[in-house]
Amino acid sequence: MASSWCWNCLSRLRPTPRALLPPSATPRISSAPFHSTAVHYAQPAKKKGNSLTVVKHRQSTSLRRKKKKVADRGGRPPAVGERKALRKRIVLSNPNALEIEGMLELSPATMVDSRLRGTVLGLPVPMIDQLRAVQAFKPKQGWSIFRRPGTVLRRDTIEMGRLFEQISGEGDDAQKGKVVKKIITGMKGSGKTVHLLQAMAMGFLKKWAVITVPDARELVSGDTAYAAIEGSNPLQYVQPSATSALLTRTVDANRELLASLKVSQKHPTLKMLKPSSTLEDLAKLGFNDPAVSWPVFQALWTELTATAPAAGLEKDFKPRPPVLVAVDGLAHWMTESAYRSAEFKPIHAHDLAFVHHFLSLLKEGDSLKNGGLLLYATSASNNPNPKGLSIALDRLAARQAGISASSPEYPQPPAYSDADPRVLDLLQPAEKAVSPLELQTLGGLTRDEARGFMEYFARSGLLREIINEQWVSEKWSLSGGGIIGELEKLGRRVGPTASLSK
Amino acid sequence: MAWHKPTSLTQAMQSLRLTTTLTKPSAQASRTTLNTLRPRTYATEAETIPAAAAPEINFGAFSQKPARIIPSSPSYFSGSPRFIDHVLKLEALQAKHAGLPTVATSEAPRMAWFKLPQFRDYVGEPVPMKKYKSLVKILQRLNRIQPDMVPEEVRKAVGAFLRPGNPYAVENIPRTVDENGRARGKGKRKESTAVVQLVEGEGEVLVNGKSLVDVFKRVHDRESALWALRCTQRLDKYNAWIRVQGGGVTGQAEAITLALGRALLLHEPGLKPVLRKAGAITVDARRVERKKPGHVKARKMPTWVKR
Question: What is the pTM of this model?
């Protein structure tokens, strides 16, 4: 309230009593020429804006929250496949991550170099498309936090690199045409799938034919079309679209190789094939027309495993390269599939022609005539846990440890267990095999390898720690003995523990 | 304010009688004095010889049951006679043997006197804390008598106030690392119990025969399980072999923390302040509070419903 003193003449203005105020109907003088007008006359200043204190009558005064407006998508759910595409999206690069100076690439020289053990080797950039084509990368492997994809060179990797050299016929103890069959197991996060990826990368480096089944489950989950093969006994089933997808993958990844090889065998079922056509042309027949994809795949397989040309086709014959077959999620092939027969009985996975083909490679016999590597990995997180498989794998391990099948320590299925006899028969280790089925169990990294791996995180700018012996061994213990998936979790974690350990 | 009608009547009668005797004329003046001393007799009564004095009362053996039993303890009518008896007895002993040489309190044998509730049970009286403390003081004074000179009666009297199975008599064998280099520690938290065998090694851990990662999916649980080793930076110097059962994941992890801390103390007792500060050997004795009748859970009340 303004003072009732006049500051010019220091006289007291007489305050007018309130009762004498003129009625509000009389026009107000908006501005007084002299301050004879008392302050009381002034109208209260009008509040600006719609303040909350304005009392609303004839309305409910209870609290009303505004509902969040849902972004209008035109009233439609996302398009078909949009969600899945988002879920399966693979990001292989992160421009925010630091570029690592002097990062070596995987190459025929580095992949067998034991001095580089524990370092992270980048995957060669031109190869990444090939690896994408064979679906070597999986969505949640943490590729998207680094500048470029890279993998650790661990002991198992170097051993595998040497194996590639041997089978390709290079190096000291070359064994050209050798077939190595391995089932890869290990704990969750122990790097089985990345081990397959490294194998594929090495296969591409060595110019092998790489054939992969990135997810074994897709073939038995009942998602793709299937049809019985007429006249087969026991009845087998083909999966045309899955086969077509396999051919697409194979062609995309091995285009250069397949384009350089000419058809060398006779395929009476495929009339449209010319003698001069390449294997790429052959495979393309399959993915243009899924109906013939299975015969096309069989033809491609005979071409890849051919050791000599058929009569009359000797002209452009080139020796076939070794083959790498990589299958991920083997356990899904050891149960009954989700498919049903005409009698509405479940079809066993081994009755699917596609699955049967790849599983029969594990058996003793002339599976890969030009040599090669079969890597069949199990999965710890996506595992139907068939009873027969665990016993079969135990038996494999026992046989590798030198326990004979007649010894009492040899694992037996428990009494009255319903272990699948087909599975047990399939993985039964043969007595004196030339190329026996091996069981490779991936464990954790060693401390040195773990250190190299964590340094990779630090150099990428993800980890702000001083990496020393003690810090690494602490993380090594926390990750259950260097389980690489757990190490990755610890490395990318930015949280209270990171600051606690200082 | 008394209506003394009947009494006044008898008084009147008696005065009447008195006057009659007085008014009786007596010939011998010498006998008048005797007559006044002799008990009054009625005229119809025969003269008898004076009665003999009653025998002295033997309080030890009453011929008949007395009307009131005389208490055995003089402190019967105090509130807590048995307690006071004890006190008096001990005080008497203390006074009697006050001259015996004593040792320092620290050198006197350690005695587990009754706890207050036990003592109340023993005497069967609601003894207050303060009074019991004064009794214990006397006991402690008696206990300070030089051990080789303690009289038998004192020893006996003092012995009556000891808890059964004197806990201080049992000597705790301090746990040590065994001949194979294993230290064993136990820990509990919530419903879980963990036993850790700790040996020198390279930081490998097995929980129930499985990897640490298999048992504890959360990194936080793994960290809290190995916290004792981690906060002392000993993670790469020991191997742990752990068995844990009961409860949930968090409880198991924290039971392991405690067990591991205790096992580590056997290897390196000097780490105790560090471990104490880090909370690795602090026992958390909390358990689930029981559900109460009328409540939905331990404390939660059902929703109030009008009518």
Answer: 0.72
